[in-house]
Give the backbone structure.
Amino acid sequence: MKIVIAGYGQEGESNYRYFSSNPDNIVTIADQKQQPGRPLPSGVKTIIGEDAFEKLEDFDIIVRTAGLAPRKIKTNGKIWSATNEFFAKCPAKIIGVTGSKGKGTTASLISSILSAAGKKVWLIGNIGTPGLDILVQIQPDDIVVYELSSFQLWDIEKSPNIAVLLFIEQEHLDVHKNIEEYVKAKANITKYQKSEDILVYNKSNQYAKRISKNSNAHLIGYPDNGSAHVTDSNFYYGEQIICSVELLGIVGKFNNDNACAAIDAVWSITNDITAIKNGLNNFKGLPHRLQLVREINGVKYFDDSIATIPGAAIAAINAFDTSEVIILGGSSKGSDFTELGRVLAEHDVRAILIGEEAENIAKSCISAGFTDFEIFKYTSMEDVVRRAVELSKPGGVVLLSPACASFGLFKNYADRGEQFNAAVEKIK
């Protein structure tokens, strides 16, 4: 077959390895950039240029990279994706996890619990491992935990056996046309589920609730006293106590909610209380997700660079009941900062605003009556951290939780977090 790999970054490279391994396939790489994100294979056919995705007539399959909107591809062939290929060929049960924040943490908690229960688990997707790279190794009795973004769900043709739908809010409007398109993509995680499948959903979120009403799956809202919930600082499933929330190796009420979603997701596979307790305790968090970097002079420094939307920053602010200095700002994802401004006004917090979104965040702060902020001009992350040190109070915390993307300032959220960590390590 004549196949095009549309977009050649990390996922595109994986797609090329997978589809070119079949000698019957004739594979071409298409990319809008003159120098794609990965070095091109020797001798490969290419279509390069700004209009590359509009020149894909007469190909059988166009395998789009996740962030490429299907509407931008002009072809008379079939538009496909790594996610669709994986779902079509995977022999094992799939637990899919999506939401605007908490996907990686919840997927990792599910994986940790199932591993503690003795299951063979594959953790793939947005969290780092391309599914097609390990597809051939997966056995029918294994379990796949797949972290799924709206981009991966955009044109999916099959839903996971167990779907987990976390908190959803406005995000990725730099790629999606509007919030409705974004939510519609998220809804595909349950679109093809049957009555024997399971949808675990955040019952306090308007978008997740709306999606659940159109699902054919067995519904489990979280947290709920009939399933996973927290009472008196303990995790329960129904009336059965599991363990103290202090055994969970990550901080924040929102992570307690993520843990409840994970417990609900695994309960039909294992209700081994010891395994669940050990799984919660074994997981110590993911890089750049409200991760304690260092405590110095009575101040704790947390790297939450993964917080690229206002809701994630709000969750980080609410995780602490002490004085806070928060670093906010970056490049635009079309976010609304109104609620963030209101939350800042309710806390003992000082805000350092950076990047192109600093002015927009400042406007929301002023509208909410929050004025303890400054728009900070800087030449390096070290400058920002030095200012945060000056504003911090003993017993308090300093948070890098930007509520924005990093592009234009840093390579990506990981680079932003790593530069923050390096700057914190230099504090004397």
Remarks:
- The longest helix spans residues 103-116.
